[in-house]
Write a structure and sequence with these properties.
Elements lengths: L1 H12 L8 H15 L6 E4 L4 E4 L1 H13 L3 E5 L2 E5 L13 E2 L4 E2 L4 E2 L4 E2 L3 E2 L4 E2 L4 E2 L4 E2 L4 E2 L4 E2 L4 E2 L12 E2 L4 E2 L4 E2 L4 E2 L4 E2 L4 E2 L5 E3 L16 E2 L5 E3 L2 E2 L3 E12 L2 E13 L10 H7 L2
Parallel strand pairs: 5-8, 6-9, 7-10, 8-11, 9-12, 10-13, 11-14, 12-15, 13-16, 14-17, 15-18, 16-19, 17-20, 18-21, 19-25, 20-26, 22-27
Antiparallel strand pairs: 1-2, 3-4, 22-24, 23-24, 26-27
Helix pairs in contact: 1-3, 2-3
């Protein structure tokens, strides 16, 4: 199936694709069905190497899915939409609590035990068991969310469908994302991290360990350790596991003077004994 998808995608980029090809339709629809049921996943974790691997051909299958589908009226209860991608159809057998108007596109997978408040989950996304997607949260295309994650109200997880080689946003197990948190541009939040309300994590965001508890942390994204003038470890594109992060600022020199710019501050480490379901306020209180 992977070889077929890769060949069809090359034909599409070369403007030689026959969109009526029956094998094309069968193969692409099978890929999307497998993503929808959790049989396939855009990114998989290698526990031996402690790294995430992106499977580009599954991104290709999604782009081909857009190519072969036509705009149609999509019906959902008393609402109608116009799109190329149908919405997921829910039954009690899936074990997911779906509150109106929680919307998930076909090709996304939401594991049993999840709760979806009025929210939006895009194609290719994968959400693990026991995760809470709160009101007005959005899970972008191909974003990967682990088990027992709390995605608070208004959180935005960016989708990365193109470029193909770009890794999507990955949120590992037991993470707490506070209200209005934004995570984009292939950012990795490691397991059990706590991100306080309003934190913005992008590819250019400095994550500064002002607690000093992560100086020896082994990062798989940035092998070279970087420190600021105060001796604080700087991370980019990754929040270490068990880190407690709040929004902060750092001074930066520009042509017209020195001004504060946004950053994120690691202010402590989540205790191993802390209940994974504990509130954000309690975690911040624990580390004073």
């Amino acid at each position: 199936m992977q070889k077929l998808i890769e060949n069809f995608f090359k034909e599409m980029t070369d403007s030689k694709l026959d969109v009526k090809n029956k094998i094309l339709h069968k193969t692409v629809n099978q890929c999307i069905d497998d993503l929808d049921q959790g049989k396939l996943k855009l990114c998989t974790y290698d526990s031996d190497k402690n790294i995430w691997t992106l499977h580009e051909w599954l991104k290709q299958s999604i782009l081909l899915f857009f190519k072969i589908n036509k705009m149609e009226v999509v019906l959902s209860d008393n609402f109608s939409f116009v799109d190329k991608i149908p919405l997921k159809q829910w039954t009690k057998e899936q074990g997911v609590r779906v509150v109106p108007q929680a919307l998930a596109r076909k090709g996304s997978f939401i594991e049993s035990g999840c709760i979806l408040m009025p929210s939006y989950i895009n194609i290719g996304a994968h959400v693990g068991a026991g995760t809470m997607i709160d009101t007005w949260a959005t899970i972008g295309s191909c974003a990967q969310v682990g088990k027992n994650v709390h995605v608070s109200g208004g959180v935005g997880l960016g989708g990365v469908l193109e470029p193909l080689q770009a890794r999507p946003v990955i949120i590992e197990d037991n993470v707490f994302l506070g209200s209005r948190v934004s995570v984009v541009e292939g950012f990795l939040v490691k397991q059990s991290a706590v991100i306080a309300s309003g934190v913005n994590l992008t590819a250019s965001t400095y994550i500064i360990d002002v607690s000093g508890e992560f100086e020896n942390y082994e990062s798989k994204i940035n092998n070279k350790k970087v420190f600021d003038d105060n001796g604080a470890r700087i991370f980019k594109l990754e929040v270490p596991e068990n880190a407690v992060v709040i929004q902060g600022t750092r001074n930066k020199v520009f042509k017209k003077g020195e001004y504060p710019v946004s950053c994120a501050l690691i202010i402590g480490k989540r205790s191993e004994s802390t209940d994974k379901k504990t509130s954000l306020n309690q975690v911040l209180r624990d580390i004073n």
